[in-house]
Structures are given as C-alpha cells and as structure tokens.
Amino acid sequence: MDDNMGARASNQRETEQPSLPRKGGFRTMPFIIVNESFEKVASYGLMPNMIFYLMKGYHMQSANGASILFFWAAISNGLAIVGAFLSDAYLGRFRVITIGSFSSLVGMILLWLTAVIPKLKPPPCAESSSSACDSATPAQLFVLLFSFGLISIGAGCIRPCSMAFGADQLGSKDNPISARTLQGFFHWYYVSASFSTVLALTAIVYIQEHLGWNVGFGVPAILMLFSVLMFLLGSSLYVKVKAETSVFSACILVFVAAFRKRNLPLSATNLEYHHGKDSSFTAPTHNLRCLNRACIISDPQKELNPDGSASNPWKLCTIEQVESLKALLRVMPMCSTGIIILLALNQYSIFSVLQASIMDRHLTPNFQIPAGSFSVFSVLTLTIWIPIYDRLLVPLLAKLTGRPRGLGEKTRMGVGLLLSALAMAIAAIVEKVRRRIAIDKGLADKPETVMDMSAMLLIPQFCLFGLAEAFNAIGQLEFYYSQLPNSMSSIALALFTLGLAVANLLGSLLVKIVDGVTKKRGKNSWLSSNLNEGRLDYFFWLITIMCMVNFVYFLVCCWAYGPTEDGREKMKEEEE
Fold this sequence. Notes:
Blueprint: H1 2-16, H2 29-44, H3 47-57, H4 62-91, H5 93-116, H6 138-170, H7 179-233, H8 247-260, H9 300-303, H10 319-336, H11 339-357, E1 362-364, E2 367-368, H12 376-401, H13 409-440, H14 459-483, H15 491-518, H16 536-561, H17 567-575
Antiparallel strand pairs: 1-2
Helix pairs in contact: 2-6, 2-7, 3-4, 3-11, 4-5, 4-6, 4-15, 5-6, 5-7, 6-7, 7-12, 10-16, 11-13, 11-15, 11-16, 12-14, 13-14, 13-16, 14-15, 14-17
C-alpha cells in the first residue's frame, strides 16, 4: 500500500512539474544565425572581386564579365521566390535550407577547384602580346557557370527561409510568439547580417587580393562547410513546421477560378459571393472587377461543401482571397519604381571596382583599401543612418508633419530615387576627371597603371547610395506592409527580392546593349576593359537620365495610386 501511495505521489509530482519545451527556443538561434551569417560571408565575399577573376582568369572583356555577374545575381534573387514557394507549399523550411546549404557548399568547392586546377580555366596570357590570350573553352565555361548556378540555388533556398525558420523556433499556433521576443530575434538577426556583409566586403576581399584566388576561394568554401555542419548539428532541436499553403498558391487559385468563370455576367443582380468564416466582407470591391468572378457562387449545391467551404478551390475562392490579390496587383506599379535605383547601385558597384583598381587607394603609406571593399561604405552609411533617423529625426519630423513615422513611405521612396540620381551624376563627374588626368599623363594605353588620383573620391557616391537605399528600400518594405492585408504581409520581402532580380536582369541587358552599340564601326566601347579609352562617364550619365525618368514615372504612379493611410497606424489598428 505504501508503495502504491509513493508511486501515486511521484506521478503527481511529475504531472505538476512544468514541462520544458523539447524543441525550439533561443537555444536554436546560434545554429540558424551562424548558418545564415556564414552563407552571407561566403557568397557576398565572392562578388566584389569576381570581375577581376573573369577578366584575368578567363580573359573576358569587362562588359561581358559584368553582364555575367548581373545575370548571376538576377538568378540568385529570382530563385529566392522559388525557394520561398517550395518551403511554404511543399518541402518545409528545414528541408529547403538543408538543400540550399549543400548546394552552396558544392558550388563554392567547384569554384575553388577552377582556381586550383589549371585545366579548368584558360592558360595565362603571353606577356608579349595581349592578343595571345586564349578564350575559355565551352567545357571550362560550363564548370564556372555551373558553380555559379549551384551557389544561386543555395542563396535562393537559404535567404528567404532563414528568418522565418528562426521565428518558427520561438512561437507556434499553441504558443504564439511575443512581440518582444520577436523584436529581440530580429535585432540579433540583422546585427549578424550587417556584420557578415561588412566582413565579406573587407576580410574576404582582402584575402583574395593579397593571397590569391586559391586561398580567396578556399576560405569561403571552408566557411560554407562550417555553416552546413552548424545547421545540421541543431537538427534535433528544431521545430520543423510542415508545409501547408503558400500566398503564391492562393493568387494562382484566384486567377484560375476567374478564368474558368470568365463567361459569368458581373452585372447580374442578387449575386451570391463566397467568403470565409467571420469575414467582414459582404461583396468584393469594384476595382479589377474581372477577378470578382472567382468568388461568385454560381451553383451552391456543386460548389459548396456542407460546412460552407468550397468543394473545389480552383473554381471558387473567397472574397478575402480576391481582395488580397487585388491589393497585390495594385502595389505592383509602385514596386516597379524601385527597379532603376537597384540597377544604378548594382552597375556602380561593379564598375567602381575597376575604377578603384587604377586609383591610389592608400590610407597610410603601408595600407591600401582593396578595390572590392569600397562597397562597405554604402553598407556602413545605411547601418549608421537607420538608428539616427529612427531615434533622432523621426520624433522631430513627427511633430512637424503630424505623422507618427515622420516622412511617409512614398516620400521616403522618392527621396531615395533622387539621391540615387545625384550619386550617379557625381560618379559621372568623378570619372570624367579621372579619365582626363589619365590621358594627360600619357596613360591612355596603360590600363593597369595606377594613377596619382585618390580613390577616396569614390566614397561620397557610395555614401549617397547607402542613404538612397536606406530611404527607398525601407520605405518600400513599410509601404508594402501597410497596403497589403495581414495574410500577405510575408510577400513584402518577396516583392523587394523580385525587384532585385529584375534590376540585375535589366542591368545585364543594358551592359550588352551599350557595349554592342558603342563599339560599332571600330570605335572603343564605352565599357572598354581599358577605362582610359572607354567612356564610363557617358554610361554613368545614361543611368543618371534613367534615374530621373524613373522619378517622373514614380510621381505618376503615386498620383495613380492615390492617398494612403500611415502604415504604422494600420499596424496598431490590426493589433488592437
């Protein structure tokens, strides 16, 4: 009897003792953040100096090399949309991140092998004549581009899923995540992302410049290996949310349902619409009325289940789904206004590396900034400006404008567009001065000779681009969040990523067109590998004009969109 009472007491104590969560929590954060951070250091560290590797290792012209790099970046950003869709609808975030991590690792190892194994790239040029350079064979190019493709797949799988996977560890449907916990996670996530970017643009670039490509590509590969191992070590601790539905799938459903009911009249009276439970909608809006057919109930007995849900979601959608798609389509023109500023930033990031390589980069007599590291000034400006604006200027502007966030989202987007145009104009002026000095000193036919002109003159443009990105990019993200319904808030980052992909794709096309047109009839291309013979300043002025035309287009889009309510106020109302 005593034994039975003791057993019951022991069981009671075990029942009363609060059970600790077996999976998830902050203990998983080191594994997730290290995976994301090391992937960023490894992949971002490859880009700045890659133009030199293509020009010197594969004997490409600067225009061809830049075009490949822009296309590579476009693929990486475009695949981020695919990665997000696969993780939400089919595979889940853990599997997608794992696949991406291994893909990046194999891609970086393959890229490292192109530097280590001589037969994987063309032989060095003969010193007597530049015309003796052999072009890369199709097989050599295939290996190089295949490594780029694997790295792009990795980036497309890791970057859109890592933050959401981290949030999965801190909350669930049964245990919702608190705002304070989420804020703490985002804080450390962005701190690690900023630190990783700075480390990639400084340490990795420095290693490549001073220790060569064998070590310069080997270090990112080792970092990526460590990233994979760290992520897999935490596998038993992760909360692995199963794939359910995707926002993209819901949008496709509306399009398909509306198309299948394209013959239904919209002007008929007593139309019955399908809506979700506890819905505040009684009828769809009149904007984009053709999509309203997707939620019209034409035959209740065939289209509805006994519980009121749609029997076939490909033929009948809810009003909420239709209105969500309308909201997304409505912001797309505003989304397109951010493409040119990203194009300008990407173009300058590539060609400024070539400028800096033939300018005096010394900070001290014994130390000079690597040519590929000047982009760090843009990152630092953005990182420093955000807290200054948020903590110091927002309270002041809020008093002057009556807006809780100071300047509105569209105003900040417009300021960013103007700053990008100013940055490109200054870049064109600096390049014109640099070219004139080089020619006056007889360096027209000496493209690799370092001239007596400080590369520090490139820093103001990068700082302006950092400010432009801080205003425009953050303004865009807040605008999307404020104008899209809660169910589509996650698509805000996807829209920005899509803009990056389109910007890089257009950038690759622009370089090809400008190079092809300007070198006709035996003339030197504006984008010649010899900057002293080319006219890079004309190219920068062309992009400046594009920026100004884009600003006018932005004003038209703002007028067409109409007034908007403040995003932060909308967020508060939704929370209440």
